[in-house]
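>> Question from a student workshop board

For tomorrow's exercise we were told to take the sequence and the ligand below, predict the bound structure, and bring the output to class. My setup keeps failing. Could a helper post the expected result so I can at least see what it should look like? The ligand is adenosine monophosphate.
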Amino acid sequence: MNIILFGPPGAGKGTQAKYLVKTLNNFQVSTGDMLRDEIKKDTEIGKKIINYMNEGKFVEDEIVNNLMKKIVFNPSKKGKLIFDGYPRTIQQAKNLDLLLTESKQQIDFIFFLNVNKETIVKRIEKRKVEEKRSDDDLDTILKRYDTYLKTTSPVLDYYSSKQNFYKLDGNQEIDQINKQIKGFLKL
Ligand code: AMP
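>> Workshop helper replied:
Here is what the output should look like for this input. Compare the format with yours to find the bug.
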């Protein structure tokens, strides 16, 4: 089963992705984690993106699209992808469609975790203490939320008319959201 978890930063995509990975034996595809790894390893890509990431700006489509190609075409991951944080722009959504068609795959479920700004700020302030992420300070959170509204919201329109699109209230407790996802997946 290929699933997209969609929503603003702090919506709980990563938490739900980890649950689905464990339960379905799938793979989490977090572009954020992949990009942080490039920075940690100080690769060419890492050097190029470090400032964007720290400022809460998006990394260029071309960079994330290239990273995605390797994952989608990996035969051991075929039909077992949990997308967390990708796609984030229309260009990325179109690229994903193309990659899936070329590799004879499809998206089975799209879960939109809809959260308000207050919940996001609360959750990210908590995560900042737990994970010490450099892009989790209040200023950057607000910038990331603005970027989401401007750039990622149109992606919502791209997906929301699809039959396998499900909108969930992401302000609920994590367990509650999890229960709803399990219900849709019949787990
Ligand atoms: P995340 O861990 O998903 O919250 O992502 C952290 C940061 O990584 C974002 O604020 C962006 O700078 C970058 N990033 C992650 N995924 C993408 C993406 N799909 N497109 C562009 N930038 C991304």
